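User: C-alpha cells for Peptide methionine sulfoxide reductase MsrA, please.
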Amino acid sequence: MLFPHHRHDHRLPTEEEALKGRPEPAFPLAGRHAVLGNPLAGPYPEGLAVADFGLGCFWGAERRFWQTPGVWTTLAGYQGGRTPNPTYEEVCSGLTGHAEAVRVVFDPALVSYESLLKLFWESHDPTQGFRQGNDRGTQYRSAIYTHSPEQQSAAESSRDAYRSVLRGSGYGDITTEIRPAGPFFPAEEHHQQYLEKNPAGYCGIGGTGVSCPVGIAPASGS
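Assistant: Done. Predicted C-alpha cells:
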C-alpha cells in the first residue's frame, strides 16, 4: 500500500491526521545483533540501561552507537509518534509522527549516558528542525527520548551546554526534542544493522565539527 507524501512535513500530524496503525507488529524482529551478537529485544540483562536517540537516518546513526565500547546492543526503530506498530513506508509518509530512532542498550559501568549524549550531539546537526542534511521530513528530526528523571536532566543540561558552544560557532538554536520515552517500535529486519549488511549503503550522518562539552554546567543565560 502506498501513502501520499505528507504535505505538511514542516509539522507533525494531529491525532486526527495520524495513521491508525495496528495492534501487533506487521513484521517479525531479528533475533540477534548482526555485529555484537546479543539479542535485539528485551528483557535485557540486569545492570544494563536503555537510551533512545533520533539524529537523522537511522542506518548511519545506529552504526555510530554499536561501534562504541560498552554498548551491548542497538536497534533501529520508530519513536515519538502517534501510530502504533508503523511500517517504514508509513513513517516516511509523515503521517505517523515518528522519528527514525536508535535504541542503545549499554553498560553504565563501561560507558556513561553523558558520553552517549556527547556522541549524539557530535554526530549530527541538531539545529536543522525537520531535516538532517538532504534528508527532509519530520522523521529526520533530532530527538532524545529519556528513560528516567536523571536522563532527562542530563539531556537538558547537555543541550544547554552545547547550545552555547554552537552559538559561538555561528549556528542557530538547537531544535532537538527532549522528552520521556513512549513506545519504541523496532524497524523492519533489513533496517537493523543496515550498514553492516550493506557496507556501501547510504549514510547521511554528519556532525557540525563542533565539540560537545561533557560534565559541565549549562552556560549562564542559555
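User: Anything notable?

Assistant: Residues 1-7, 216-222 have pLDDT under 50 and may be disordered.
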